[in-house]
Amino acid sequence: MSEAFDPIIQHGAPTQEYVRRVMYAMLRGRIMETKLSNLYKAGKIVGGVYLGKGQEAVSASLGAALRMGHDVFAPLIRDQAGRMAFGEASLDATRTYLGSAQGPMRGRDGNIHRGRPDEGLYAMISHLGAAVSQVGGALLAKRIQGTLGDSVGATCVGDGATSTGAFHEGLNFVAVERLPMVVIIADNQYAYSTPNERQYACEDLVDRAKGYGVAGHSVDGTNVLECARVIGGAVAAARSGEGPQLVVAKLLRLGGHGEHDDGSYVEPELRQGHLGRDCIEVGKELLIQNGLLTAEQYDAWVQEISEECQEAVAVAQREEGPNPYSEDWSATSSLSLRGLK
Ligand SMILES: Cc1ncc(C[n+]2csc(CCOP(=O)(O)OP(=O)(O)O)c2C)c(N)n1
């Protein structure tokens, strides 16, 4: 076992500290992404910008339940909040989006394809579903090397990713090996423009957990308190030896697939219904109602985070991009995955 960490779940409920950390990371993700969207629209960012708007409660509940340097986390395109909750610095994001050579990918890999693998934050793989076996493999390697301890591995995927062979192979392998892994499915109703009824024929994706032989949980992805309870609980269960955990979060992507897409194909009834709620607005209300936050604290958080974000953009904008004449053509700043060089 490694050093003791504060529990995130006590008597089946998320601790106040954990919920506040989740909410803070949700705001950091949203404010950073709003800024990135503006920079993209101003032509300052090369490549795509994909946002997690509406998915922050799910993403941050996962990231805040993990510990960078101890656990393994493979985020996907909508996980800015989860990355920040896990421990990614704002500067890692702005430097990568703005092509600074000081960033974790040295200005040589695009936007969301960034990570710090030696600290357990894996750079995103585009191929949907691939991260399940990637994280599973990392956990198996740690187990074989005798370094697994109480580490947990986790990844988030979308409903579309569940239709890939990679997802199936990965989850089956994780289940057979009974690895301490949490797989979150952010069921946001669309895979790009493909609606759920063209994606899967089962009633609910959580029903598949039984077929894989893993624990299955459902959660309302618009409700931060529920996300913290269910996702935090799944991480705690994996950490305490209960095997792989599959969590299906129901929500709606509150934007297009990326900032190049207006999402006009999204059904208006979905936008206006329960799933179309903004988890940040709902979260603010819930935390205030439950005495976990005051309106003044919330405003102070927004102010503090906005300043941090502005500063991270300003720093990255002043920095040089990579120099092709002196490059060693290694994408990550550490020359090995373990950061030995
Ligand atoms: C194996 C594979 N097939 C197709 C794509 C192209 N692609 C990128 S994102 C995307 C939609 C993903 O939808 P979903 O998994 O539901 O996640 P969401 O974008 O809704 O968060 C597709 C089809 C890909 N990256 N990988």
Key descriptive features of the protein:
5-stranded parallel β-sheet; 11 helices; Rossmann fold; globular; alpha/beta; 341 residues
Shape: globular
Span of the ends, CA to CA:
27 Å
Can you name the CATH architecture? 3-Layer(aba) Sandwich
Oligomer designation? single chain
Topology:
Layout: E1 9-10, E2 13-14, H1 16-41, H2 56-63, E3 72-74, H3 80-86, H4 90-97, H5 130-145, E4 153-158, H6 165-176, E5 181-187, E6 190-191, E7 194-195, H7 208-212, E8 215-220, H8 224-239, E9 245-250, H9 268-272, H10 279-289, H11 295-318
Parallel strand pairs: 3-4, 4-5, 5-9, 8-9
Antiparallel strand pairs: 1-2, 6-7
This protein binds thiamine diphosphate.
Thiamine diphosphate (TPP) is lined by residues 78, 126-128, 157-161, 164, 186, 188, 190-192, 253, 257.
Concise structural overview:
This protein is 40% helix and 11% strand. It has helices at residues 16-41, 56-63, 80-86, 90-97, 130-145, 165-176, 208-212, 224-239, 268-272, 279-289, 295-318, and strands at residues 9-10, 13-14, 72-74, 153-158, 181-187, 190-191, 194-195, 215-220, 245-250.
Report on this structure:
- The strands form 3 sheets. The protein has a 5-stranded parallel beta sheet, with helices on both faces. It has a two-stranded antiparallel ribbon with strand order 1-2. Strands 6-7 form a two-stranded antiparallel ribbon.
- Helix 1 crosses helix 3 (80-86) and helix 2 (56-63) runs parallel beside helix 8 (224-239).
- The chain has one domain (9-315): Rossmann fold (3-Layer(aba) Sandwich).
- It is an alpha/beta fold and 341 residues long.
- The model has no long low-confidence stretch (mean pLDDT 95).
- It has helices spanning 16-41, 56-63, 80-86, 90-97, 130-145, 165-176, 208-212, 224-239, 268-272, 279-289, 295-318, and strands at residues 9-10, 13-14, 72-74, 153-158, 181-187, 190-191, 194-195, 215-220, 245-250.
